[in-house]
């Protein structure tokens, strides 16, 4: 016979996990009926193997509608998947040289001793196909699977734009909704987006897929 206390503990752990995922909008959890239903965000997080905290972080960013290179790179650096990438003593000099060179075209945001700055630096170094000397940095460059996480962020951004467009169409006169701007729209994040696409197609010397 099952231990009642063990069963109660298992149930509590499951409910706590469900409530956490519900809070971050990866599932819909009805605490009364105990029913679990996935959301589109949750499905995409599963598809791209993205941590729930990373998914929630990107969702909040996408809702703000900011699409700048520095913001995208900083978000990649803040991803939960890279929290363990500490800056080692023997890496500080090379990371500093990379940041001061033309390799890092986008300014690094955040504490240089934090994982987020290290990830931003390695991402730009990989996109520029810059040689990395330190063995530990080479290993970390292979670990930083930025393309997969960026693709998740891009998918969520696309869904958000579709929702905003649908909302706008519902609130503007029909004649105005048919109007088209005569000027082309250029994304502020175009350079980073194109470089990520290039690396995903195998044009980078690093394993970023």
Automatic annotation (TrEMBL):
Classification via InterPro entries: Meiotic_Crossover_Helicase, Sec63-dom
GO biological process: meiotic cell cycle
GO molecular function, one term: hydrolase activity
Pfam families cross-referenced by the UniProt entry: Sec63
Residue span(s) of domain SEC63: 38-151
Coiled coil start-end: none
Cited SUPFAM superfamilies: Sec63 N-terminal domain-like (SSF158702)
Protein name: Putative activating signal cointegrator 1 complex subunit 3
């Amino acid at each position: 016979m099952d231990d009642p206390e063990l069963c109660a503990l298992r149930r509590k752990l499951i409910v706590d996990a469900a409530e956490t995922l519900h809070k971050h909008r990866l599932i819909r959890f009805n605490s009364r009926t105990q029913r679990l239903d996935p959301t589109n965000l949750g499905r995409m997080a599963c598809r791209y193997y993205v941590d729930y905290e990373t998914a929630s972080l990107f969702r909040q960013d996408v809702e703000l509608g900011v699409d700048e290179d520095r913001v995208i790179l900083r978000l990649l650096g803040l991803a939960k998947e890279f929290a363990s990438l500490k800056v080692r003593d023997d890496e500080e000099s090379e990371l500093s040289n990379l940041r001061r060179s033309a390799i890092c075209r986008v300014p690094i945001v955040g504490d240089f001793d934090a994982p987020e700055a290290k990830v931003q630096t390695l991402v730009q170094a990989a996109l520029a196909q810059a040689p990395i000397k330190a063995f530990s940095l080479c290993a970390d460059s292979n670990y930083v699977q930025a393309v997969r996480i960026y693709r998740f962020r891009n998918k969520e951004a696309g869904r958000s734009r579709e929702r905003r467009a649908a909302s706008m169409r519902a609130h503007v006169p029909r004649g105005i909704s048919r109007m088209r701007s005569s000027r082309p729209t250029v994304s502020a994040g175009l350079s980073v987006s194109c470089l990520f696409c290039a690396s995903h197609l195998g044009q980078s010397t690093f394993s970023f897929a």
